[in-house]
Write a structure and sequence with these properties.
Blueprint: E1 2-5, E2 9-10, H1 12-15, E3 22-26, E4 30-32, H2 46-54, H3 56-65, E5 68-70, H4 71-76, E6 82-84, H5 89-103, H6 106-119, H7 125-140, H8 143-153
Parallel strand pairs: 1-3, 2-4, 3-6
Antiparallel strand pairs: 4-5
Helix pairs in contact: 2-3, 6-7
Length: 181
């Protein structure tokens, strides 16, 4: 999921973008986790997402001060990947989306997303090793893997045949998936 933030993103305007995988922002956009200035606390799971995205120190500074900050500060703090002129923002977001859609296996992207988000709660790297290994085993036998290798060898764009709608393998059998409590 890609967020293109083209204007003020304050309160829920920014917290709703935190679960997205990549965020781009327009020059001049103002961003703020202003909850403490209103006598409330962050919402929309931002206390879980924000420290994982930018680190606890940056998350605490923005949340504790409640101040509104610039797109450049959001970039420097790791909240967004890039800053663009307003009239170029959607084009940049679409270009990034096209790079993903045109060059990668949708099934592999979906599985990678699940692995990365799930492993944020893993108690030990061994959980990631087991899940990654299962993913490599399943994907290594797939039509997408064969196509990926052949397209590389033949120096042509890949045309991945597998579809997410056909289902994904279980990378976390039994109770190995980290529990969130």
């Amino acid at each position: 999921m890609i967020a293109a933030i083209n204007g003020p993103a304050v309160g829920v305007g920014i917290t709703m973008t935190l679960p997205m995988d990549i965020r781009l922002v327009a020059e001049g956009a103002k961003i703020g986790f202003v909850f403490t200035r209103r006598g409330i606390v962050p919402e929309a799971c931002s206390s879980w997402f924000l420290p994982r995205i930018v680190g606890i120190s940056q998350a605490m500074e923005w949340a504790a001060t409640g101040r509104v900050f610039s797109a450049d500060e959001a970039l420097a703090g790791g909240l967004v990947r890039s800053v663009h002129p307003g009239d170029e923002l959607l084009g940049a977001a679409r270009e990034l989306a096209a790079e993903i859609a045109d060059n990668t296996s949708p099934v592999s992207v979906a599985m990678t997303r699940r692995l990365m988000w799930t492993m944020l709660g893993a108690p030990h790297p061994m959980a990631a090793h087991r899940a990654d290994s299962r993913g490599m085993f399943f994907r290594g036998q797939s039509a997408d893997a064969r196509e990926g290798v052949m397209s590389f060898l033949e120096k042509r764009p890949a045309s991945f045949p597998d579809r997410v709608s056909e289902g994904l393998p279980d990378l976390f059998p039994g109770d190995e998936e980290p529990a969130f409590s």
